[in-house]
Amino acid sequence: MLGHKRSSHVREYGLATGLGALFGATNTLVGHPFDTVKTKMQAQAGFSGSMRATIARIWSTEGLLGFYRGCVPPMWGSAVYRSAQFAVYDLCHTAAATHAPLRRRVDPLGVGCEMELRVPVCGAVGATARTVLESPIEYAKVRGQTGQSWRLAEVYRGAGLQLARTGPMMTLYFCLFDSCKRNGCTATPLGQFLSSGLSALVGFWVVWPFETLKNMTQAGIGGSVLDKVRATPGGVFGLYRGIVPGSLSVFLRNGAAMLVMAEANRRVTAWGLRD
């Protein structure tokens, strides 16, 4: 994603998979504590207060390990689905370079920020690949964070909401990060951290209600989407519960993960693993 010269498709796919896995593992290590706070505020009875009160309760009842409850599924799973996300995007983006219609410049965000059509298209393809792998892992994570066991027959519970959340979020992330890269914002480590963290943050803010509804569904809260909205304190505005710890988690983990991925990219090139 940072503009290195492309080698063979097979080798590049393998490198993108490995680098994406590193991105995913770092993402979980850095962001899981705040993600746990967010999930409890969204989907667990007794945790509907402020972020500060939720953190205090987790600390007093479960200690430090409570913030990493449910981290095992996303620890290995994040490496899997994020590697798929970047590898599929990278492969699609490279293959689309030979198709003139996909090289046409468009402004998908409508803010005067032009990019090649292949960026949003391949972003959507990568996001869909991620969703297929991510949904069972997210289900297991949410169940663990809310102190519940998970069942194999339910691993795709909330998958529709997962796609509604991940598809637009990741497509927007790839578009925004591509714009940052083309405008020279990723030339320094700080620029890479801010570009990735802020791109992910904007994407998450756009789909935040779907994140809350997904977590409620995966935590076992029944009823239709409309029923959940009606049952949520504050209605539609209540769907933004947990947005502060969630935003901290998204920004920090995606910024840190991009730094690790960029450094790994540099080393891969220095070791001659790219042509």
Automatic annotation (TrEMBL):
Cellular component aspect of the GO annotation: mitochondrial membrane
Membrane-topology descriptor: Multi-pass membrane protein
One Pfam family named in its UniProt record: Mito_carr
Alphabetical keyword list: Membrane, Mitochondrion, Repeat, Transmembrane, Transmembrane helix, Transport
Gene3D superfamilies tied to this protein: Mitochondrial carrier domain (1.50.40.10)
InterPro entries: MCP_dom_sf, MCP_transmembrane, Mitochondrial_Carrier
Compartment annotation: Mitochondrion membrane
UniProt GO molecular function: L-ornithine transmembrane transporter activity
Similarity annotation: Belongs to the mitochondrial carrier (TC 2.A.29) family.
UniProt protein name: Mitochondrial carrier protein
